[in-house]
Amino acid sequence: MANEISKGRVGVLCPAGPDDVAPAIFARKAEALGFESIWVGEHPAVPREIGGTYEQLVDGQVPHFYTNIADPWMTLAHIAGATTRIRLGTAVGLITLRHPLLLAKILATLDRQSAGRLTVGAGAGWLIEELDLFDVEFSSRFERLQEIVEAMRRVWTEDEPEFHGEHVDFPPILSRYHPVQSPIPVLCGVHGPRGMRMAAKWADGWLPVSSGPEKLAEDLARLAEFCDAEGRDPAGLDITIMAGVDEETPADMVSSLFEAGATRVLLAIGTVTTARTVLEGSRADHPLAGGRFESTLEEAASRFLF
Length: 306
Known about the structure:
By secondary structure, this protein is an alpha/beta fold.
């Protein structure tokens, strides 16, 4: 890991629903405007009946955009083939739902065929009912996430890796298709103190949702303490902050997050991470709708890119 991560990078969350503009078209525009990276999320299967209470729900229901999002790895492959420079990431991929050997090969393939442009934002999952569909135990999802990442790193960097853990166990295998990056950077996409501890222990960085620059500065001071306890230099962590933005977001919002310690700001344009857009309206009225996304990206670039 490098001693210090470069700062001032601005990425953008890519719409990936069936009625959205094709991700390749969106990504080419973002790349041309100078965005550093493009990111997608993941929810492969959302049960109709939700028994739990979650802060992400709207009127007791999972927001519609969670239920019609494309597969992240296929989407990023689509984008990779249409671009040359922009980095590719997940915010976040639900790593716990996948078998580590299969996922390791998918990610190695994507990284190599994109010439080393992949960053994995790794999530454990928050929707119990979704994890149940994949036979993933909710109570041990964080431990499972760590083991999967550790196992994949071996597959990416060793010719005959093996792994023996509580949640991941496989004998020596022949692994000779490695990614360009050795290994692929993995950011911990778990929020709060638990996420900070996890990032300090095993991740290449941290990927939380922004609560503003003051809270970020407080969180990063605490993250530095966790890094010290693990014998790690916090300057080596990639701090990618997802920030909801819309037309009313101040132009200095991004710079304030960098001043607070972010190394990358990921713009989530017009999403439920913004208080004013929690209630869903017509997709045609969304700022990233097919007829509006170009002007929206241009406006965002003029305000937030340096």
